[in-house]
Every structure is written in structure tokens, then in C-alpha cells.
Design brief:
The chain is an alpha/beta fold. Helix content is 46%, strand content 14%.
């Protein structure tokens, strides 16, 4: 499994903690930035990570900003992305089992490093259940297809 990792200045410190966990677990990743705590715009990093996952260059993505909300909204604009904001392990497990979430978002100012690593571990180790959940995920994809962009930012 290869992970695309990114975040803004509000998530920088937690992203660094997550990198150490991934290194220790032997999970390959690419850090798409930011690389310090200077103010930056979260959509830039969310888009890079989401596109890398949607294009299949990475299996999953993890994004961190101050609250997890901004990167979640931005990532979910990329077709094929099912980003889930998780600040507890129950949600992380359900996001994978029921929703086949391919991007995890968290808030560096909301969740502490110990809990964040528990969330990451559960999210990475949990598989999609399929079954009745696959039908629901397909319905989400159909909504995306109906309203999504079809080249050059045009709506259908």
C-alpha cells in the first residue's frame, strides 16, 4: 500500500507524527507538503493528494489541516475520491468498511497525536466490506457522475 500524504500549516505537526508512524510501519508514502508551519492554502495540498489517489498513483491518502474540514471538502471535489473526516477509531473503521473511503482527513488542532495514530492504524488496516455497502458506494458514484465535471471544469 502506498500513501499520499499532505496538509496545510495547521496540520503540519500532526503530519510529521504520521510520517514517523508510516516510516516505522514500513508503509511507503509521498509527502506532498506543506513542509513547515508557514501559512498556506489547504486546497492546494488536498487537490494534489486527491488527484494522486484518484489517478491510482497511490492507494490511499491522508490529509491534515487545522480542523480536517477544509481538506475534506476540497478532496471530495475530485472525482473518485471518498474522503472521510475521522476523529475517532469507530468512524475510521466504518469509513473503510461501509464507505470504502480512500482519503482520511483529520484536524491537527482537534485530535492529539496518540489518538491520531490509532485512527490512522485502524483506517489503514480495515478493508471495505463490500456486499450491501458496495451498492451504496455505487450510488454515491452515480451522484458524482451526474453532477461531476466532465473536462475543463464544465458541468454535465
Amino acid at each position: 500500500m502506498r500513501i499520499a500524504l499532505g496538509g496545510d500549516h495547521g496540520g503540519f505537526a500532526l503530519k510529521e507524527v504520521i510520517k514517523k508512524y508510516l516510516d516505522g510501519a514500513g508503509i511507503p508514502y509521498q509527502d506532498f507538503g506543506t513542509y513547515n508551519e508557514e501559512a498556506v492554502d489547504y486546497p492546494d495540498f488536498a487537490q494534489q493528494v486527491a488527484e494522486a489517489v484518484a489517478e491510482g498513483r497511490y492507494d490511499r491518502g491522508i490529509l491534515v489541516c487545522g480542523t480536517g474540514l477544509g481538506v475534506n471538502m476540497a478532496a471530495n471535489k475530485v472525482p473518485g475520491i471518498r474522503a472521510a473526516q475521522c476523529h475517532d477509531t469507530f468512524s475510521a473503521r466504518a469509513a473503510r468498511e461501509h464507505n470504502d473511503a480512500n482519503v482520511l482527513t483529520m484536524g491537527g488542532r482537534v485530535v492529539g497525536p496518540g489518538l491520531a495514530l490509532d485512527i490512522v492504524e485502524v483506517w489503514l488496516k480495515t478493508d471495505f466490506s463490500g456486499g450491501r455497502h458496495a451498492r451504496r458506494v455505487a450510488k454515491v458514484a452515480a451522484i458524482e457522475e451526474k453532477y461531476g465535471c466532465c473536462g475543463e471544469g464544465k458541468k454535465r
